[in-house]
Amino acid sequence: MKTLKAALIPLIIALSLPSGQAQTRFDDLEFKQFSTPEGLPNSMVHQIYQDRDGYIWISTFYGLFRYDGYEVRTYKSNLYTPGLLANNNVICAEEDYSHRLWIGTHEGLCVLDKQTGEIRKMKLEGISKHRLNEIHVTKDNKVYLGYIRGMAYYNAELDTLELMTSKNCKGEVPEQINIQTLLEDENGDLLIGTWQDGLFHYNIKENKFIHYPPLDESNSVLALFQDSKGALWIGTSGSGLYKVNFSPDKKTLSVEKAYKHDALNTLSLSSDYIYSIHEDLQTHSLWLGTRNGVSIMDLTDEGKFINYRESGSEHYLPVREVNTVFRDKNGLMWIGTKGAGVFHVNTRTRPFEVFYPRGNGKSFTDIISTLYVEESGASWVGFGYGIDYQSEDEKVTLIPSKRPYHISYSPSTREVLLAIHDGGVIVCRNGKIVHQYKASNCGFIPHDLVYWVHEDRKGNWWLGTYKGLSVRYQNGREYSFNQLPDADKLLSKEITSIMEDNDGSLWLATNNNGIVHVTGNMEQPESLQCKNYCIENGLLPINTPLCFLLDKSGKVWVGTEGSGLCLYDAQNDCFRSVHQEYNLPGDMVGSMEEDNNGNLWLGTNQGLVKLTITGEEKGRVRIFTVADGLADNFFNQNASFYRNGTFYFGCSRGIVTFNSKIAEENHSDVSLCITDIWIDGKSLEQMPENKRREISPFTADFTEQLIVPAAYSNFTICFASLTYNHPQQNNYAYRLQGLDTDWHYVNASNRNAYYSKLPPGEYVFELRATNENGDWGEIRKMGITIKPPFWATWWAYLIYAFISVSVLALIWWEIRRRLMLRNRKYLQKGETDKVHHIKFQFFTNIASDDEKFLQDAIACVNRHLSDTDFDVPQFIDEMATSRTTLHKKLKSLTGLNTTGFVRSIRLKAACNIMDGNKNIRISDLAYQVGFNDPKYFSICFKKEFGMQPTEYAMKAAKNA
């Protein structure tokens, strides 16, 4: 680590300030802009505010906007929502503890009920101008309002606004005074900043005002803020920044320090006009929004300001007037400007350092292929071509024209071993080449393209090469397995990586041939046994293993290209992918290390991942990307190393190094919200009031039970995890209990769940999300009721049942009547026509669909009439239905079960055959209609028609 840090010296020098000052933590902050090109409807911002749910509200000259990190919802009066707000010039907004958003406009107050979505206008009586500059909700949920012509409060009991005057308040009341800002102090009292009337103090319990003496000639207070140490800061209009102290009784105040702009001092305030003040708790710095950009002051070094502005500063920000600065609950600093929209920046100290061993201190284009750091601190770094060795005394480049694949250490010889493309194995000591083993000068290298050298616990060298495995025993014996006549052919495959298990067996990664496990007596190469784990035998989900890791508990992990992280299942003797199970990013794991706490660190193709596999947080995933200071999100194969608490991961843009403890971050809550619900393609909140209330009386985020009437065929639930630094890194999972069997995982580009034509019933929608580092939050639930159509309700089914029973009774009565009539005729006529009535007939009152089904069934049996092997399963397959459905259908239409129906068709076919062939033999007839046994055929025939087949044939001959 000590030698690698030397690479940072040019970078530090290059970034040194021209004034000779040391580089500060506020230099080169990366501001992200959100303005009209990025989707903000207009760029003229008064205020930025975050509500208790996590939404960002942006008050602008032309409307109020709610931002969830992805999309903007507009609240303004226009062609589609006329008269929605008192005025579209929205100056401020703040939420109370009853889910109401109080909105101050140029023409008065509006109150948005976040639960129902209703907005109402409230007018303050007794003032001539209704511009509302400031709103403050106290800790006990009282609402105070600062107007351009006085101060008011909300009377909750009467649901009215009350103007504060000398008639209902004590002391020097700020009547008809332009209120600019309100601040609640540690005692729950209010400090009131005004335009040209200075500062007031209001004791809420005593209902009494105090007016302090003027601060300066202008006496205009535009901003008030109390920092984390209790100090009070005042931003003025033209007189700079004051730090003031109060007397214990709050009756007097004194200025402790004053800071102003000095054109000759680059570390002075950017402007004396200060519109907004806030503190960044991560850096303990004061942020000031001014008429000329943003000024940042470290509270441990007061009086020195880093200024971000459009011109005249080392730190560029394309803004002039900054109307508001604000810190959100996740620590991001927000800036609202007049004309440039919104900016935000993450000031958190990044845990990762990036080194560019061959770069110019700022960039790097040579791929890091392998890493090794000695106990002494000397480092070995393999590039696309060549290996750099660096110690405290020297830096040299070895084999500059060769590609290195792997660097390892030989404990038995205390030498570094280099596996080289077409260079065999190179042995080094103290940065110098000691010996080179090639196919031409030794017997254990079958090919000079060597991918891997592993020294086992007995001091033997195992090589993975282009032509397979080879070994050089400590006693000097040498073997190449591709040359051993009885060796397993798997040992001749191209081997790219080797790992030794706790039992001394070897795991080999091959090039597109899966994994090979080598067991047996490692000292006797002729007796070694191999087992292949590959996609062809189902023991590995993909044939491209990249890297191995044997963790402290003895588990074998393998990183693959395509199936991500896989784990060896010893019980079933196979590898299974756990990539989706842990919801890891991407589909590749190229490098793996384990820290001292048993956590896995994975270099993937979509960032660096910390995976907790033990303890209370088992399964927790932390994802780090370029947003956290990484050089790249793609990490190279086997280009990682871990020693003494420090990690090294190589990518195509340098080496990322960090301490695992430094990389620990506090688990931040996930503010998961349901941002909208669409019913048949229309937003719930845009539906007519009567229809919307039928579905839900609440807005999307407050809906706990969604009722979807039968008239609607589909619905969509939209959601967002309200983080704003890198919201595209958030992931989501949802499922509908009662329909989905597993979670659906989606990324930030697909933040909605769509369901269509669900069967009527009760469901529960479950939703969860991650923040930008992959931490999963709590499950959010919402009940969903799919209403059946009127014809499918319980009372409709009751009517259907009554009608069905009535119709069946009528049919039964009619059938019974006809049977009785037919029997009477038979008694009168005798049995002369009996033969004609035993022909195949069924009821004639069959519905058309059922008639087709019956015809298909008869045709199916007739096609297999002489097939004695035709049975019920084959009948079911050809009818393309289930056993139960076929049975029920035939029973309802013919009164016969499946077997009886087939037998009846065969017997009636026998009658038809005898009608056409009077002399046919009964045994031949039985076989023609699918009976194996003529005797059994005769029994069935008599049971069906009441006579033997011979009797029927004789009667048929007579009738002919």
Automatic annotation (TrEMBL):
Keywords: DNA-binding, Membrane, Phosphoprotein, Signal, Transcription, Transcription regulation, Transmembrane, Transmembrane helix. The chain crosses the membrane at residues 794-815. GO terms for molecular function: DNA-binding transcription factor activity; phosphorelay sensor kinase activity; sequence-specific DNA binding. InterPro entries: Homeodomain-like_sf (IPR009057), HTH_AraC (IPR018060), Ig-like_fold (IPR013783), Quinoprotein_ADH-like_sf (IPR011047), Reg_prop (IPR011110), Tscrpt_reg_AraC-type_HTH (IPR020449), WD40/YVTN_repeat-like_dom_sf (IPR015943), Y_Y_Y (IPR011123). Residues 1-22 form the signal peptide. Residues 855-955 form the HTH araC/xylS-type domain. This is HTH araC/xylS-type domain-containing protein. It comes from Bacteroides oleiciplenus YIT 12058.
